[in-house]
Design a protein that fits this description.
Layout: E1 5-8, H1 11-15, E2 31-33, E3 38-42, H2 47-60, H3 68-77, H4 81-89
Helix pairs in contact: 2-3, 2-4
Length: 102
């Protein structure tokens, strides 16, 4: 059985992984391999950011895209995911269609 969670100490190490065959770009926070039931990701600068990426990738095990169902699942598990993602990306939270104003 393969390891279900593979963490790397840095994004650079993550980008050089040989656990997956495709190239990993600088903007990729993690990879979900649904067929292998595993998540591969680097540890982020903060625990809140690492939590966001891990939850994001785990949600992808059940929902491939980033549509309304994905967003509802993220809201249920990690209500402040947009703020955590913004901190990770160092940009203001992006609003999706249907988000409550605020």
């Amino acid at each position: 059985m393969k390891n279900p969670l593979i963490f790397y100490n840095t994004h650079g190490d993550f980008q050089q992984t040989n656990t997956i065959s495709s190239l990993i770009g600088t903007g990729t926070g993690g990879v979900t391999e649904s067929l292998n039931n595993r998540v591969i990701m680097p540890v982020a600068p903060s625990l809140a950011q690492t939590d966001h990426t891990l939850v994001h990738e785990l949600v992808h095990l059940g929902e491939r895209g980033h549509g309304p169902r994905f967003q509802r699942l993220m809201d249920e598990v990690l209500p402040d995911w947009r703020e955590r993602r913004a901190a990770l990306n160092e940009r203001p939270p992006r609003r999706f269609p249907g988000d409550a104003a605020g």
